[in-house]
C-alpha cells in the first residue's frame, strides 16, 4: 500500500481500488454524516437535523475522537467502499456518494482546490451550524430539521 495519493485517483480508480489513504482523503470533513437524520419509513426520504453526534465539534465539524469513535458511539457507521451503495442517506455533496454515482468531486472539494478550508467558504459544512445531541431533548428532534443539507 502506498503512502501517497495518486494523481486524480478518484477519476481513474473504482472506490474498491483505492488505498486506505485515498479513501480517507475523499472525506471533505463536512460533518454532515454525523448529523442526526430522520428517515420516513414509507418513502425512505431522509431529513437532516442540525443536531450532531456528541463527538462532533460543532465549531470545526471534526470528530473529537475519530480513531476511537466506535467505543463512544456504538452505532457510528464506518463507511467502506464495499458498502457505499447502501448509504443513500449521505448528502448529495458527499464525495463518497458522488464518486459511487459516477459524478466528479464538487469544485470546492479540497482535492480539487488544494485547500481544506474551501468547504467552509462554500458553506457545505456543518461547522458553526449544528448543536450537540447532548443539548437537545430527543423528543424534540423533529424541531431541528434543516434544509441546508444539499
Keywords:
6 helices, UCP006173, 150 residues, two-stranded antiparallel sheet, UPF0260 protein B1202_10965, alpha+beta, Puta_zinc/iron-chelating_dom
Verbal overview:
The protein has 150 residues and is of the alpha+beta class. The protein has one domain. It is 19% helix and 12% strand. The chain has six helices and five strands. The strands form two sheets. It has a three-stranded mixed sheet with strand order 1-2-5, with no helix packed on it. The protein has a two-stranded antiparallel ribbon with strand order 3-4. The longest helix has 7 residues, at 20-26. The N and C termini lie far apart (34 Å). 21% of the residues are buried.
Amino acid at each position: 500500500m502506498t503512502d501517497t495519493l495518486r494523481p486524480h485517483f478518484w477519476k481513474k480508480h473504482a472506490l474498491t481500488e483505492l488505498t486506505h489513504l485515498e479513501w480517507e482523503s475523499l472525506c471533505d470533513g463536512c460533518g454532515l454524516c454525523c448529523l442526526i437524520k430522520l428517515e420516513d419509513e414509507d418513502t425512505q426520504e431522509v431529513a437532516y437535523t442540525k443536531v450532531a453526534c456528541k463527538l462532533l465539534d460543532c465549531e470545526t465539524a471534526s470528530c473529537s475522537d475519530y480513531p476511537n469513535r466506535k467505543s463512544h458511539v456504538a452505532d457510528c457507521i464506518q463507511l467502506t467502499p464495499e458498502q457505499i451503495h447502501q448509504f443513500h442517506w449521505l448528502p448529495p455533496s458527499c464525495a463518497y456518494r458522488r464518486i459511487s454515482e459516477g459524478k466528479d468531486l464538487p469544485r470546492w472539494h479540497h482535492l480539487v482546490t488544494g485547500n481544506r478550508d474551501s468547504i467552509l467558504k462554500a458553506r457545505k459544512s456543518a461547522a458553526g451550524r449544528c448543536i450537540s445531541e447532548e443539548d437537545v431533548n430527543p423528543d424534540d428532534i423533529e424541531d431541528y430539521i434543516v434544509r441546508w443539507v444539499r
